[in-house]
Amino acid sequence: MLYNLFAPLSEDFIFFNLFRFLTFRTGGAIITAMVLSFLLGPSIIRWLKKRQHSGQPIRDDGPKSHIISKAGTPTMGGILILLSFGVSTLLWADLSNGYVWATLTVTLGFGFIGFLDDYLKVTKNSHEGISALTKLFLQIILSLLAVIWIVNITAPPLSLSLAVPFFKDMLINLGWFFIPLAIIVIVGSSNAVNLTDGLDGLAIVPVMIAASSYALIAYLVGNVVFSSYLQIHGVPGAGELTVFCGALVGAGLGFLWFNAPPASVFMGDTGSLSMGSALGIISVVTKHEIVLLIIGGLFVLETVSVVVQVTSFKLTGKRVFRMAPLHHHYEQKGWPEATIVIRFWIIAVILALIGLATLKLR
Fold it and tell me: Which of 17, 78, 221, 322 qualifies as a cystine partner to 10, CB 3.0-4.6 A?
């Protein structure tokens, strides 16, 4: 909004020229989202505590220590993230950019699905919320609408093509098969982050690391000079998602203040589903869907651990891990929660650096 208001005035007032720069507006988005989180956090947490007398329902089949250490902690803290990052994005992004509205719609839409799930869990005092099939159906429909929207505003041949990292000219035209692939990316990313959200601070920091990586990617693919130099496929208009990613990082930093061990609030499905979907749709817009498997590799590992565990148990009656997802396996081995969280953060940083290296290795 500030860009749309002040950028046209830059010819008469030199100060307003700052609003033309993505770097300036991204910095503004980070600070705005972070400050809003700090200001709104205490009141939102108090409000959640009043309405959640027992806090987030703890699963009986989870680690036994959680029943004692995490009982009574309110969930649905994703509301704080969505409010902070949503307001910040609307303030600092170019609101005439279709990619901004598509990503916002998906992120807030998945957040609403997560909110409904959390609300049912809290009101029923049960870990069972929306049925898995209903949740998946809603996610697919929302993703389908968003992908069609993105395809319509992206110029061919990029609109229906998959870019392959490490190869400067490789662009696989999937035709309309690209749409189901993109849906899988968005829905898969959303649920992968959801599975990772099991310990205080475990999910939000890798989300911020991935968002920071995609802020750089969005800036580069949206810039003709840099995309040509790096020999990556440029996507005109995608650079505006740098501001979106900045707002996501700022909101994440603010939320981490309250989610740091011992957490005062959990993000719940409201936060994890929305944050995961945001990463998924940004990768689709920037044509770096495959790179998300590397940058978001921690989320992939957590998801694979669940798939392996379930498959192994059904086929052989034996478990590969002591408990899935993967972070619970290490809890059962006796690792302190802080050790697991920090080591997983380190892994997320390493994977993000490897993912960013694909920009130059062509």
Answer: 17
